[in-house]
Amino acid sequence: MSRELIEAERERFSLKEENCYRIEGAWKTGYVPKVYVDKEQVTDISYAEREGQMELSIKIPEHAQLYKKVYVYGVKGEARYLWFSEQMKKILRKQRKPQYFIDYADVDFEQHRCMVSGWAVYSEPLEIYVENEKGERAEFSLERVNRSDVQQQYQEWDVGKESGFFLDIPFREEKGFRVVFSAGKQRTIRYVSLQKRKIAGEKAEYYCQKGIHYLKVHGVAGFAKKLMKKAEEYKNRPYPYTRWYPKHMPSQAELEKQRGQSFAYDPLISIVIPLYNTPQQYLKELLDSVQAQTYGKFQLCLADGSDNGDVEAYIREHYGNEKRFVYHRLEENDGISRNTNEAIKIAEGDFIMFSDHDDTLAPNALYEIVKELNDYPETDVVYTDEDKVTMDGKRYYDPHFKPDFNLDMLRCNNYICHIFVVKREIVDQVGLLRKEYDGAQDFDFVLRCCEKAHRIGHVAKILYHWRNHPASTAGNPESKMYAYEAGRAAVQAHYDRLGIRAEVSMTEQWGRYRTKLFVEGPPLVSVIIPNKDHKADLERCIRSLYEKTSYDNFEILIVENNSTGKEIFRYYKELEENYDNIRVLRWEGAFNYSAINNYAAKEAKGEYLLLLNNDIEVKSEKWMEEMLSYCQREDVGIVGAKLLYPNEKIQHAGVIIGMGPSHTAGHIFYNFPGDQFVYAGRTQTTQDLSAVTAACMMTKKSLYEELGGMDEDFQVAFNDIDFCLRMREIGKLVVFQAYAELYHHESLTRGYENRPENRKRFKDETRRFKSRWKEILRKGDPYYNPNFSLERSDCVLSE
To answer: For labeling, which of 42, 227, 239, 679 is most exposed (least CB within 10 Å)?
Structure first.
């Protein structure tokens, strides 16, 4: 590791143990930490050093206030370097206090607004608010946001999904204000100045002092490297939705242009809405948002089951002249499903669109949907992205950016939700909403419609605003447990209709489901493992296959590729003598991952091929059944597994095309904790993807042969991604199976790309991949979302 990268990067108190002070950062491998308070050594420490990163925990001694300073050294023999130092009084100020970090505080003096972005955590529920300099509460708006990086940092405590925040603070003559992080009697305060000279002076002084210190410790080269690193971090920082949404809304000029546009196909869209005692303000916002649509050929069908006449009176008084609004008063309130069905019965449209009675539509919602129908005339179903809106209708937050149609993801969770538009002919085929699924009646209906649709379109734009009620499943999951059970039953019924043997259960995350498919018969699985030397890794892999794998009808083909040590050949002989289902094949050519697997596939006796790296270790005993049961489906071509590093962090949870340093393909949520609930639950959700890694990949041998195996021009890189994309070209699904878990002990099958010939080969293979798959790289991975940045792996917004 180069000198300039050795530094303590984060320091904080543990949320679990109030006297435990934690420091993390880059570290010199082989060195041991030693901690001192003043000149006295602290022995009550624990640490873990992995891949040049140190995680150090220090038990703060009694009477800590008597000490002046804490020092942490890295020690190796006689060599010693100072890694971290801080005044004890500064450390103790943070103890038992809410912890926070300010990413930036931007002041717009023209608009008289200040935007503060950061995160805050504590062991108790935390309130964030703003005070003026007199200590009085000031005006502000707060957006709580998901910060997966903070969840990753605070692994000892559940800090919740929304540890991040964006504060929008209007001001006039104030000189500054205080951001308060409060929990019970504990408060932490950050003062933010609004004086131009003071802002500039504070920033200059802060960065000057910090820069001088860093220059002294790390030298000129280290200082330059740090500047580049900070610039890259700033460039790739999470982009706030509060800024993103106004920037991506259509302008008034664009909306006027949409109103004047005519389509070759201009279907009538019937928007069906059941009403029940809808508050007037919410009803007005909804109806006004429908009237404001830039595509005007719609019919609004309102079925009112209210227990009084207030809703009817309001509609007739304020919207009585709107001929596109059709109001029907129901004799009784018969529940959400039957009330919605009454609205559908009065619909005359070519397409039926669903909305709740107190949500709102973006003004271009219908326009974008009809545009999709014109661009793809075979479309039967369209859905869009959505967000949430506060009760007062003033703030939009928590956006849900969805992938294009993803059948297996839908079976785990109703990610489609709003907006959902379906052709009338499909409704006639599948029937109306079913009362027995009330609470998840929309999920049941979506599944039935998708079963019949020829094409399902997705408009990757925020076109629906879902109002967050304290008693709704949007805002309070525990409030409607019956709805989650109805959702589970809806998915089970979906499998039953398709004749697929499946068992659907609820997970710990409400509204998310796990599907267990059943293996049909005991087909033979041929496990192919390329190997060169690395006896210890291969031995661990083989041992785990036999000790931890519950499925027993498999054979193992080890492809020996020019090993040099005698020990590995003795191990091969031992395996062949002890196991009748292990064969060692010889590949004497140069290392070519594609050619090696193609050669072994021809020798395989199994109906299914399982490509496996020699550095894999089995974690979950049912992993092979989980993969095989999905791979047996007619619509599935490839199944991949969830791979974890030994420290339980994600190595592979699916591949996104266009992600990564070379903008070719990258692993989503790479190096995140395996049990952390990430954006849309993607690492815990079995789903369809564009590609998975061949470090653990199952496919039908017949399909492998149909595709001609892996492309041998991709000797090392991209062979598995290319194979997956070619499988998608013939109409087969690539599935990431979240419940097949294995450990991946790094890529030991081959060396790193550090030799000139290796770097040249990688560049050549990168160019070849980009040339072959330029269209998907141009359009974007359909299983991601075009609004996400490809510079990071954690589903953050692109500016």
So the answer is: 227
